[in-house]
Design a protein that fits this description.
The chain is α+β, with helices and mostly antiparallel strands and about 475 residues long. Among the domains are: about 120 residues, no CATH class; about 70 residues, Helix Hairpins (Orthogonal Bundle), CATH 1.10.287.130; about 150 residues, Heat Shock Protein 90 (2-Layer Sandwich). A 5-stranded mixed sheet has the order 5-7-8-10-9, covered by helices on one side.
Length: about 475
């Protein structure tokens, strides 16, 4: 594995690499002793072979170190202890020297083996500590716990050199001859299962059970508790938002629906009288028509808002001409002919969108701008730009203060710039934003106080392309209604 250390790699190579290094070390040491014999007694040069013994024992373990000590003693006897060229020893002093060397080499091998094991254990502990820290980061900061468990299992397999590993929520019954399951518990309750291959060495299984499972149990319990808390928090936020929406909806129903109904009833009563003049009758009929139209638009807005809030405003996309959609919205508003000044590029391509939803959006958008234009014409510009169509609706009204621009797309919010006495419900342009976004587009506001307001709207030409606004476009803000 990528993080396996130098010692571990060589332990895995004992059968070939260790024997080769041991043989080479003994041969090189034997050659080195020849020039040293010119300046020191042969009997004292056996200590040089200890370097080879220590090297082999430290890296490849006790048994290969002992074998190297035996080979060193034989080489020392054969090449350097008189009479050379054989395994006979004529001098008792040489027997003592060889025995001391052999005992010293065995003790050195044992000490080197213990040092190697301690270093290996320290490295394993370090890797396990790093593993616990990585699992804590993955499990306790994850947005999706199941993805985090998959990444954590991969990390366990990588750190412990396992062929595979998986972490499952709850208990599983799919273990057998090919897999071993370690239950992960919180108290008496099983909260998860660590699954590994069944053919692992006993030492690795024991290491998993004793040093990996306990911290994994604690981290999984904390992650499950965190996920539950986040779920409760999201649910509570959704309930609070629903309560706010219900309260605002009841307020709109109690006031905004009652107002046109009261006007209709007040105008309908005198129509029964024979004493009113034809002019008065026509005026009352006009009031009824106007208030009924306002009531119908409010009901349509409430229905659109409920669909958007419920995620049920799925557009029925088809190819449509945006110029025709804008013109249909203007016709529906039934405003004077000079209310809008259209500057629509004649070469705009068709877009694939829900024409009826876009028409509803433009009815609210254009009606809002006309209401705040201060009697001036509202300019409507549209043109194709790269992979999208840009529409700008510009009025010369009082503008929107910067502090309010971030909120005016919220349902039931009304900016405090209305000097016309309009009794809006605060729904119009929140519906514009919802319907435009449902069709893959975006809408935002650009405004300065007393300098008018521009609503910028974009729609993608290709529904398969990324419809995101480039980084140089302004951040979407709110709108008025």
């Amino acid at each position: 594995m990528g993080d396996q250390n130098w010692t571990s790699r060589r332990v895995a190579g004992v059968p070939v690499v260790g024997v080769a290094v041991a043989a080479l070390s003994v041969a090189v040491t034997t050659l080195i002793v020849y020039p040293l014999a010119q300046v020191a007694p042969e009997v004292s040069l056996g200590v040089v072979y200890l370097l080879a013994v220590l090297l082999v024992a430290t890296v490849w373990g006790l048994w290969l170190g002992v074998a190297t000590a035996v080979a060193s003693a034989l080489a020392f006897n054969f090449f350097h202890i008189p009479p050379t060229g054989g395994f006979t020893i004529s001098d008792g002093e040489h027997w003592v020297a060889l025995a001391v060397f052999f005992v010293t080499a065995i003790v050195a091998s044992e000490l080197a083996e213990r040092a190697r094991q301690q270093a290996q254990q320290a490295d394993e502990r370090r890797r396990e500590a790093d593993l616990s820290a990585e699992l804590a980061r993955l499990l306790l900061r994850a947005d999706d716990l199941h993805d985090a468990l998959s990444a954590g299992a991969h990390r366990i397999a990588s750190t412990l050199d396992l062929p595979s590993a998986s972490i499952e929520i709850g208990a599983i019954d799919e273990t057998g001859e090919r897999r071993v399951a370690f239950p992960l518990r919180e108290g008496a309750r099983q909260i998860g299962t660590l699954v590994v291959p069944a053919d692992l060495p006993e030492g690795q299984l024991r290491r998993l059970q004793e040093r990996v499972v306990p911290p994994l149990e604690a981290l999984l319990a904390a992650a499950l508790e965190r996920e539950q808390l986040l779920s409760n928090r999201i649910e509570a936020a959704a309930l609070r938002r629903t309560d706010v929406l219900k309260t605002a909806l009841l307020r709109a129903v109690s006031h905004d629906l009652r107002s046109p109904l009261t006007a209709i009833l007040n105008a309908a009563g005198p129509l029964k009288s024979d004493s009113i003049t034809p002019e008065e009758r026509a005026e009352l009929a006009g009031v009824i028509t106007q208030e009924a139209r306002r009531l119908s638009q409010l009901i349509d807005n409430l229905l659109d808002l409920s669909r958007l809030e419920a995620g049920a405003a799925e557009p029925q996309r088809d190819w449509c001409d945006l110029r025709e959609v804008i013109q249909a919205a203007i016709d529906e508003l039934q405003l004077p002919a000079d209310t809008f000044r259209l500057q629509l590029a004649p070469d705009m391509p068709l877009i694939k969108a829900d024409a009826s939803q876009l028409q509803r959006a433009f009815v609210n958008l254009l009606g809002n701008s006309a209401r705040y234009s201060g009697g001036h014409q509202v300019q409507v510009r549209a043109m194709a730009l790269h992979n999208r169509i840009m529409v700008r609706v510009v009025d010369r009204g009082p503008g929107i203060p910067p502090a309010q621009q971030d909120r005016v797309f919220e349902p039931f919010y009304r900016a405090g710039t209305d000097r016309t006495g309009h009794r809006g419900s605060g729904l119009g342009l929140s519906i514009v934003g919802g319907l435009v976004e449902a069709n893959g587009g975006r809408v935002w506001v650009e405004s300065l106080p007393n300098q008018g307001t521009t609503f910028a709207l974009e729609l993608p030409l290709d529904q398969t392309a990324d419809a995101a606004v480039p980084a140089d476009e302004p951040t979407p803000a709110g709108s008025r209604s």
